[in-house]
User: Which sequence fits this backbone?
């Protein structure tokens, strides 16, 4: 790799998610591996948030386009479904960006997390919220409404 060039990992890590472009594939934990073979082929492994994610082919093409535009001409993108993606793979940056975008991030997935029957409104921080639809614009989000400020918001669902 020439001095000053981005490594294949850095290039793939910077590719925006097609459904949440403020986040990268790395932020979401979708980027599993980037390897360069002896023949120079770059192999990228992605795990989509859902096995049937409709954005899979867009992700594949975006990664190929990003890498080829940086001079990596032989690129193979594979999807790995095991182990499955979970929201534990979200980076701290992803959680913060979701909140900035008005999307309630999923709660941490550790055994000490309290059971939540409501979500904190990303607009006013009230816990007086209710789910209005289990499915939002994408399968990984649900729709909620704050009863305090009246604002609707999306929630990135927790997946274990």
Assistant:
């Amino acid at each position: 790799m020439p001095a000053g060039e981005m490594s294949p990992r850095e290039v793939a890590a910077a590719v925006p998610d097609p459904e949440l472009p403020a986040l990268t594939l790395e932020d979401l934990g979708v980027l599993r591996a980037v390897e360069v073979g002896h023949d120079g082929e770059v192999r990228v492994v992605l795990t989509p948030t859902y096995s049937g994610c409709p954005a899979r082919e867009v992700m594949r093409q975006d990664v190929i386009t990003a890498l080829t535009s940086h001079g990596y001409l032989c690129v193979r993108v594979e999807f790995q479904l095991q182990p499955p993606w979970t929201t534990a793979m979200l980076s701290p940056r992803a959680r913060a960006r979701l909140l900035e975008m008005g999307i309630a991030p999923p709660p941490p997935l550790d055994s000490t997390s309290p059971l939540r029957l409501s979500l904190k409104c990303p607009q006013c921080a009230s816990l007086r919220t209710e789910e209005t639809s289990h499915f939002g614009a994408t399968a990984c989000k649900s729709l909620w409404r704050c009863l305090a400020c009246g604002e609707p918001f999306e929630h990135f669902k927790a997946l274990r």
The first helix runs from residue 8 to 13. The chain has two domains: 8-79, 97-156. The mean pLDDT is 88.
